[in-house]
UniProtKB/TrEMBL annotation:
Annotated keywords: Hydrolase
Protein name: Acyl-CoA thioesterase YbgC
NCBIfam families cross-referenced by the UniProt entry: YbgC/FadM family acyl-CoA thioesterase
InterPro entries reported for this sequence: 4-hydroxybenzoyl-CoA_TE, HotDog_dom_sf, YbgC/YbaW
Molecular function in Gene Ontology: fatty acyl-CoA hydrolase activity
Family membership noted in the UniProt record: Belongs to the 4-hydroxybenzoyl-CoA thioesterase family.
Coiled coil: none
SUPFAM superfamilies documented for this protein: Thioesterase/thiol ester dehydrase-isomerase
Keyword Hydrolase attributed: yes
Pfam families: 4HBT_2 (PF13279)
Length: 141
């Protein structure tokens, strides 16, 4: 299993009145993590969009474990949890600087054509990308 890591310096604007990171910001960090993972594997999401494809989120689950605060550095760990014919599930751990888990999450995505939102298999668009996801995914069939 391949794991990508990306550090995020927590900005004041990402915190709420209690001084902790507002929960929705974790979703933004997950997107940053996914983008970094894809780039680390040698591909680009922007390239998919340029070719007329999108990868919308179809399911999301997140568990908050330990609050993060302004001035800390969060490490976003991202991997391919599962990859099937039409769906890809990414896994995430968001860590404090000392390695304490702040949150864990899974997001499920389907690749679709931009013009009609019909699902399409990654194998038809980019066989090398498809093969790489099968190589690095955590859950092997």
């Amino acid at each position: 299993m391949f794991v990508s890591e990306k550090e995020i310096e927590i900005r004041y604007a990402e915190t709420d009145q209690m001084g902790v990171v507002y929960h929705a910001n974790y979703l933004v960090w997950m997107e940053i993590g996914r983008t970094a993972l894809i780039q680390d594997l040698g591909f680009t999401y922007a390239g998919l969009e340029k070719e007329g494809y999108l990868s919308p989120v179809t399911d999301l689950s997140i568990q908050y474990k330990a609050a993060m605060r302004y001035g800390q550095v969060a490490t976003i760990r991202t991997w391919v949890e599962t990859h099937g014919r039409l769906r890809t599930t990414y896994g995430y751990e968001i860590l404090h600087e000392d390695g304490t888990v702040a949150a864990t999450a899974l997001s499920e995505h389907v690749l679709v054509k931009k013009d009609n939102f019909r699902p399409v298999s990654l194998s038809k668009i980019d066989p090398a990308w498809e093969a790489k996801y099968h190589e690095v995914k955590r859950v092997q069939a």
